[in-house]
Predict the 3D structure of the following.
Amino acid sequence: MAGKCLIFSAPSGSGKSTIVQWLTREHPELNLAFSISATSRPPRGTEQHGIEYFFLTPEEFKQKINDNEFLEYEEVYTNRYYGTLKGQIEELLRNGKNVIFDIDIKGGLNIKKYFGERALAIFIQPPGVDELRKRLVGRATDSQEQIEERLGKAEYEMSFASQFDTIIINDDLDIAKSETLTTIQKFLKDSNTFWQQYSV
Ligand code: 5GP
């Protein structure tokens, strides 16, 4: 049976990646596979090619755009492209994996539009801009200028929350994790019933 899509979008620093990594690591029964995006930004910290992202040069990225290899792509920050490779997702879904996307808001809504009922779009909302600033500074992986760019963008991005299927407020990480888990379990269970009923 073909898999489903779980889309996670959020303003940067909302804890989205922490929740996504926790789900893939701690919940093998959900049969999740992480959608590895391509990006033209350089690796941060311990990030590795083919694990967190496929790291491409801007030229390589643009070549793949021309070759129509992306399901969607965005220039998320100036000259920093991010995109979802068609071939990778199709193969995972065919193999019955539930594909988990950690993706920006616009990309998330595009993937939701593409997959419709086969996808659940989840918005992880940080408690507020001040808290977000603290987290980005604490993470210490971005320059002051990059932090200001991410914060400016975050305020704008919050306005898209209502377009998602569900909103999880990440005020307390443990509560947010458990709410996310319950929501996903319900979606996978309900949609499995749907597919079993109609795939005879
Ligand atoms: P970061 O540089 O912090 O890893 O990611 C920056 C932003 O790009 C995040 O909001 C992340 O979710 C988003 N992003 C990652 N992969 C993709 C993708 O394949 N497509 C789009 N549109 N955005 C992505």
About this structure: Residues 12, 37, 41, 72, 74, 76, 82-84, 102-104, 107 surround guanosine-5'-monophosphate (CB under 6 Å). The beta strands are 5-9, 32-34, 37-39, 53-55, 70-77, 80-85, 98-102, 119-125, 166-169. Helices lie at 16-26, 58-66, 86-94, 105-115, 129-139, 144-158, 173-198. The domain at 5-191 is CATH 3.40.50.300 (Rossmann fold).
